[in-house]
TrEMBL record:
Family assignment from sequence similarity: Belongs to the anoctamin family.
UniProt superkingdom: Eukaryota
Organism: Myripristis murdjan (pinecone soldierfish)
GO MF annotation list: chloride channel activity; protein dimerization activity
Record localization: Cell membrane; Membrane
Protein name (Swiss-Prot/TrEMBL): Anoctamin
Annotated TM spans: 224-251, 303-321, 387-414, 434-455, 482-500, 599-621, 656-675, 762-783
Membrane topology summary: Multi-pass membrane protein
Domain Anoctamin dimerisation: 1-210
Boundaries of every Anoctamin transmembrane domain copy: 213-797
InterPro entries assigned to the protein according to its UniProt record, in alphabetical order: Anoct_dimer, Anoctamin, Anoctamin_TM
Amino acid sequence: IDFVLSYVDDKDGEKKQERRREFEANLEKAGLELETEDKSESDDGKTYFLKIHAPWEVLATYADVLKIKVPFKASDIPHSQDVPLEWISKPFRLPEHIMHPEPDYFTSPFDKGKIDFFLINDKDTFFPPSTRNRIVYYILARCPYFKEDRKDKDKKGIKRLLSNGTYTAAFPLHDCRYWKRARNAECESERYNLYKHWARFLCFYKEQPLNLIRKYYGEKIGIYFAWLGFYTEMLFFAAVMGLICFAYGALSYDDNVTSREICDPNIGGSIVMCPLCDKKCSFWKLSSTCLSSWNLKHSSDNIATYILLLLLVLTLFLEFWKRRQARLAYEWDLVDFEEEQQQLQIRPEFEAKCTDKRLNRITQEMEPYLPLTSKCVRFCVSGATVIFWLSLIVACIIGVIAYRLAVFAAFASIMKDSPTTKIQLVGSLITPQLATSVTASCINFVIIMILNFFYERVAIWITDLEIPKTHLEYENKLTTKMFMFQFVNYYSSCFYVAFFKGKFVGYPGNYSYMFGNERRLRNEECDPGGCLIELTTQLVIVMAGKQVWGNIQEAFLMCNWWVSRKGRQQPENQYSRWEQDHDLQNFSQLGLFYEYLEMVIQFGFITLFVASFPLAPLLALCNNILEIRVDAWKFTTQFRRPVASKARNIGAWQEILNVVAILSVVTNAFIMAFTSDMIPRLVYLYTSGQGSSMTGYINNSLSIYSISKIPSDSMPDEGVSPAWFNNSVITTCRYRDYRYPPGHEKEYSHTMQFWHILAAKMAFIIVMEHVVFVVKFFVAWIIPDVPSEVKARIKRERYLIQEYLHNYEVEKLKLQLSTSFIVEPNTENCTELCTSTDKHEVLSECL
């Protein structure tokens, strides 16, 4: 059974019955064999099952149409030698019968007229199940459900029949139950092997049986799991470096002079800071931020080295993945696949909606096309829709910023200094900035999840509106739009905290306000420990929240698994294979798309903002180790068997990863220069005359303002200021900036140190970007995308295939001539020669 369709009779089903009759009649005309299982024999007593079988003639015909490559001769190209010290990786390897190593064959596109050229031992097993269900689905997707004399010839394809309820499901069958082997010894138990050796979490340290995954699910799903495994291996090295960096910062806490000065009651305790908001915020002491200042160490000397190493690992990951991908494309016979897919596999929706025809220059056949005017109109509508929804994200972010500004004063008035030491400790842990950042991040995450719900549908709608010609073009367009939405949706709040918050504050007496001075929403400042703390908070909440939301969705699958356990208590003859698969969840055509999207968004989090949270790769590693096995478990136990499809690479995701990797160099350079205190600390270190000591840096980084010059609108209300504040004694307050003090001839204008630091920041960005980009492109240049061994094998194989095809044609021509040759001798010698019983001698000599 190559495919199964299910349907349920309902009272208003006359039109559906007519569609089914015409559709099934046309399927039989195409050569498929159909068998209907009556509802009385089904487990629920109301579902009909239409079982479809593709005989040899149909498979051969469409394998020729689709140019499916099949073996014709065992390969005689020697394999490379085994890697030395293979015993080291032995504990991580799976048995040979599970890894499913296949003999290496020369392959060629199937030609029905050259059946004797191919290695056909058994016609029933010559095409594997994945190829068979791909051929049957190709027929189902293009089979009409109208009579030949009717005009509505756009009504065709199983997709439309599923959408209008004519059929309830369409799926290929799994080969057996996953929890035990098939009773029939001749029946393959590939699903059982996948479940036992791949989908169980206890196998997390084992390699993935990629060949078996590819054979059972098709190349497209095989490529996904190969990429996910390779990406997880990269995360291991990045996580180790991040853990070392974090541990170094934690262990060297006592050496952090900056933190010690902030926490010192004689230094940080004597520095009075200006209010952080109008009216509701009081004057405060710098020592109240003792704990949060610990983050400063992570933005100092060791983080730069870590960033450079991480970006190098990312570069190596992308380059080595290209090599791994090229090797898989060769081993899985996908080297020339993309061109075939572009030319042959036109989407049924494109054929149905595009009534205009024109000649294809390549195939020299008439094919549907979309006129330029219609294409431009659709593109403009699509572009306007994208701009509108991206603007909606920006509007939501502005709303969250307004929330932050509005509630900060409320938190500040609640969290006043208390004479009780215990409450002071709690207040130092939960500052108004931290409370505002956490609540705003949670609200932002909820908005992200809500917008994601709409973005998925909007992206699909506008991609359908553009009517892409091929499946590959459809997926690439949808991928680009969806990632654009997700990129702005997930990262915009992080970009705000990293690059905009605290940069447009002004100074006491001349503060900047959002929406104008009348609204009195004063632009917020960074936490005294730096904006990196808030960026880390934002990053952790969004990453962790996304993971929790994913776990909730997995929990629903677990519930479905618990319900589906009823099948284990029923014998096979009462609970048939097609009924078991019908009760599973459908794996949509975009199912793999969402898996890629989840991982690429995670890749962006750990690369774009890793300067703020070196442990992000470690969290991603732990998540991905679990993700591989959870995805394997879902594919093996919870989803119907997907229709096999081919793909030679990860498609548009490859370019997206490259763009994210390049952008991460820029973002991390700006984070280190403008968000962290690394550059100001280095400038002070080399210009203060203190040698290698950072003593006095805190006092140097804070400017002075006269309290008497603070406008009344910005002064704290009565009763807000703490008990220790006495305005007759304390006449000045400090703020984060480099400005001249009161009484100076350039009062409150920027000092020369400000411009030195700004120049150092710009120089650092330019140098870092150039160094990283030079290293990146040099590494990309010295590491070829396709290994030389693979290139040589591809060229050798193509040469041998042409030679074998040539010899086959010559032999076939000789055989045809020998059976039909008629000799009319003119001489005695020729008469004697041409009457020889050796036909080959006749051909070679007499001719």
